C-alpha cells in the first residue's frame, strides 16, 4: 500500500516530463558541442548535379546565445506551431457536430449493430488511408475517433490509441500519392540520375506493395487493439448521462441526417469540381506552377495547403448546422454560435501541453542533434559492404532509429538519399525500392517520438479522457504504441524481404531489382 502511494507521488505529469526533456536537450547540446559532435554529409546539387560536402555540427543551447535563442523564439514559434492552430480551428467544426447531435446519431448508426472489431478495423483503415493529406489528419482523426468510441459505449482511449497507431504506422502507406511522397521522389530521382543518367520514376511505382501492406497492417493494428490493448487500459466508467441518453433514431434525427448529407454532398462536390483540371472553370484551387497533380493540390503555396484546415472545418460546420436545423436541435442563431465553441470548453490544459511541446521541438531542432545522428548513419551506409538482404535490413533499421530524433521524412531523406541510392543501385536494387525501404522503416517509430509535432495531440486527448487520478505521462503513452511498432516492424520488414526474394513488382513497371 505504501509503495503504491510512493509511486503515485513520483508519477510525472506530461508537462513536467516535457520540461525535463527540454532541460536534458539544453545540457546535452552543450556537452556534444564541447566535444565537437559532428557529421559529414553529401548532398546533390539540383543545378550542377554534383555532390556538395558539408559538415553538420551540434549547436549549443547551454550558452548565453543559446538561452537568448530560447527566450526570443518561444512566442513566435508557439504562434506558428501548426498543431495548435490546426486543432483549435478543427475543434470549432467538431464542436457543432457534437453539440447538434450529428456525431451522436452518426456514431450510433455506425456502431449500434456492428461488431466491435469491425468498427475498429474501419477506424484504423480510414486513419491509414486519410494520411495522404499529411499531418493535418492528426488534428481531426484523433478527436473524432475518441467520440466514435465514446458514443459506441466504449473507452475513448481505445479509439485514440488505435487511430494514432493507424496514422503513424501507416504513415508511409498511401494509395493516393502524397505531397511528401512527391518530395521524396524528387530527391530519389536526383540521386538515381547520378548513377543511371536520365532515370524516370513514376508516381505509381509503389502502389502494389503499399496496397497489400495497408490491408495487412489494418488487420494487425485491429487485432492488437481488440485482443491485447483492451485488457491493458485502465477501466473506463461510461458516464451515467451517456447511458441514460440512449439515442433513438426518430423522425427528427432522420430529417437532420438527410439535411446534413445533402448539404455536405453539395459542399464536397463543389470543392471536388474546383480541383479537377480541364473542365470549364475548374482547377481554380490548384497550383498550376507544379507538375504532379498532388503537388498542384498540396504544394507549399497551394490553396489546400494554406486553407485545408478551414475547408475541413467548414465541412464539419455545415454537417452540424444542417443536422441541427433538420433535427431541431439548433433553433436560432444564438444556439448556433454557442455550439461553435462547445469543443473548446476545458481545452486550457491541452493548449499548455502544446505550448511546452512547441518549445521542446523548437530547441531540439535548433541543436541539430537529429541531423548529426542521421548524417553519421549516412556515413555508415556509404562505407558498408552489405548487399542484398543485409543491406535492406541495414537501411530499414537506420530509418526507424533516425525517425526517433528526426521525424521529418524529407529532412532525413535529403541527408540519406545522396549516398543511399547509389549504394543500392550498385548492389543491383532499384532506386524506388530503396525509397520504400526507407519509408517502411520510418513509419515503425513515427508514433514513438514526442519530437513528432502532432504527438502532443495524441497525448493531450489520452489525458482528456483519463479517469484515473494518475496522469498519463509520455512514457505510458509511448508504451501503448510499442506493440503496434513491434509488429509493424516485423510485418513490413518481412514484406520487403519476401518481395525482394520473389521479385514481385512493387508498383507499375517497377521491381525491387534493376
Overview of this protein structure:
Helices cover 69% and strands 3% of the residues. It has one domain. It is mainly α. Strand 1 and strand 2 form a beta hairpin. Helix 17 packs antiparallel against helix 18. It has a two-stranded antiparallel sheet with strand order 1-2.
Sheet with the most strands: spatial strand order: 1-2
Percent of residues in helices: 55-70%
Average pLDDT for all residues: 89
Unreliable stretches? none
Shape: globular
Tally the helices.
Answer: 22
Given helix and strand content, the structural type is mainly alpha
How many discrete structural domains? Answer: 1
Question: How much strand?
Answer: under 5%
Helix and strand run: HHEEHHHHHHHHHHHHHHHHHHHH
Give the distance, in angstroms, between the N- and C-terminal Cα atoms: 64 Å
Major sheet description: 2 strands, antiparallel
Number of strands: 2
Q: Compute the gyration radius: what is it?
A: 24 Å
Question: Main traits of this protein?
Answer:
two-stranded antiparallel sheet; mainly alpha; globular; 514 residues; 3% strand
Would you kindly provide a brief summary of this structure?
The protein contains 22 helices and two strands. The protein has 514 residues and is mainly α.
Task: List the SSEs and their pairings.
Layout: H1 2-10, H2 14-34, E1 38-44, E2 51-57, H3 64-79, H4 82-100, H5 102-111, H6 116-129, H7 136-151, H8 156-169, H9 179-196, H10 207-232, H11 240-244, H12 251-274, H13 293-298, H14 303-327, H15 333-340, H16 348-367, H17 369-382, H18 388-405, H19 409-426, H20 431-445, H21 455-464, H22 474-502
Antiparallel strand pairs: 1-2
Amino acid at each position: 500500500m505504501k509503495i503504491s502511494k510512493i509511486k503515485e507521488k513520483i508519477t510525472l505529469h506530461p508537462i513536467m516530463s516535457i520540461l525535463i526533456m527540454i532541460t536534458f536537450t539544453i545540457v546535452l547540446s552543450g556537452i556534444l558541442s564541447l566535444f565537437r559532435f559532428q557529421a559529414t554529409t553529401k548532398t546533390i546539387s539540383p543545378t550542377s548535379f554534383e555532390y556538395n560536402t558539408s559538415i553538420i555540427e551540434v549547436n549549443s543551447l547551454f550558452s548565453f546565445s543559446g538561452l537568448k535563442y530560447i527566450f526570443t523564439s518561444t512566442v513566435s514559434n508557439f504562434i506558428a506551431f501548426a498543431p495548435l492552430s490546426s486543432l483549435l480551428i478543427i475543434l470549432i467544426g467538431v464542436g457543432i457536430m457534437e453539440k447538434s447531435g450529428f456525431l451522436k446519431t452518426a456514431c450510433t448508426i455506425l456502431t449500434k449493430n456492428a461488431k466491435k472489431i469491425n468498427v475498429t478495423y474501419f477506424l484504423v483503415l480510414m486513419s491509414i488511408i486519410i494520411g495522404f493529406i499529411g499531418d493535418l489528419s492528426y488534428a481531426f482523426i484523433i478527436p473524432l475517433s475518441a467520440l466514435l468510441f465514446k458514443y459506441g459505449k466504449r473507452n475513448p482511449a481505445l479509439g485514440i490509441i488505435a487511430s494514432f497507431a493507424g496514422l503513424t504506422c501507416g504513415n508511409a502507406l498511401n494509395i493516393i500519392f502524397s505531397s511528401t511522397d512527391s518530395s521524396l521522389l524528387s530527391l530519389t530521382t536526383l540521386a538515381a540520375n547520378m548513377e543511371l543518367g536520365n532515370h524516370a520514376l513514376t508516381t505509381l511505382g509503389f502502389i502494389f506493395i503499399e496496397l497489400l501492406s495497408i490491408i495487412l497492417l489494418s488487420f494487425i493494428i485491429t487485432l492488437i487493439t481488440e485482443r491485447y490493448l483492451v485488457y491493458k487500459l485502465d477501466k473506463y466508467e461510461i458516464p451515467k448521462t451517456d447511458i441514460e441518453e440512449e439515442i433513438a433514431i426518430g423522425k427528427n434525427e432522420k430529417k437532420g441526417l438527410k439535411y446534413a448529407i445533402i448539404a455536405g454532398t453539395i459542399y464536397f462536390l463543389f470543392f471536388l469540381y474546383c480541383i479537377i483540371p480541364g473542365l470549364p472553370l475548374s482547377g481554380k484551387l490548384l497550383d498550376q506552377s507544379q507538375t504532379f497533380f498532388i503537388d498542384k493540390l498540396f504544394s507549399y503555396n497551394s490553396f489546400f495547403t494554406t486553407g485545408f484546415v478551414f475547408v475541413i472545418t467548414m465541412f464539419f460546420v455545415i454537417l452540424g448546422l444542417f443536422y441541427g436545423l433538420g433535427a431541431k436541435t439548433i433553433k436560432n442563431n444564438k444556439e448556433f454560435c454557442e455550439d461553435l465553441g462547445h469543443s473548446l470548453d476545458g481545452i486550457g490544459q491541452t493548449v499548455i501541453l502544446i505550448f511546452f511541446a512547441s518549445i521542446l521541438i523548437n530547441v531540439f531542432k535548433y541543436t541539430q542533434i537529429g541531423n548529426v545522428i542521421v548524417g553519421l548513419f549516412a556515413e555508415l551506409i556509404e562505407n558498408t559492404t552489405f548487399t542484398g538482404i543485409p543491406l535492406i535490413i541495414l537501411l530499414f533499421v537506420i530509418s526507424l532509429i533516425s525517425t526517433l530524433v528526426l521525424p521529418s521524412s524529407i529532412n532525413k531523406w535529403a541527408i540519406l538519399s545522396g549516398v543511399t541510392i547509389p549504394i543500392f543501385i550498385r548492389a543491383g536494387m532499384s532506386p524506388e525500392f530503396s525509397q520504400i525501404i526507407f519509408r517502411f522503416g520510418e513509419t515503425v517509430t513515427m508514433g514513438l517520438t514526442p519530437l513528432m509535432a502532432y504527438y502532443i495531440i495524441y497525448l493531450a486527448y489520452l489525458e482528456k479522457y483519463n479517469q484515473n487520478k494518475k496522469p498519463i505521462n509520455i512514457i505510458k503513452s509511448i508504451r501503448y504504441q510499442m506493440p503496434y511498432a513491434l509488429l509493424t516492424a516485423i510485418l513490413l520488414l518481412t514484406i520487403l524481404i519476401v518481395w525482394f526474394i520473389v521479385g514481385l513488382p512493387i508498383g507499375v513497371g517497377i521491381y525491387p531489382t534493376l
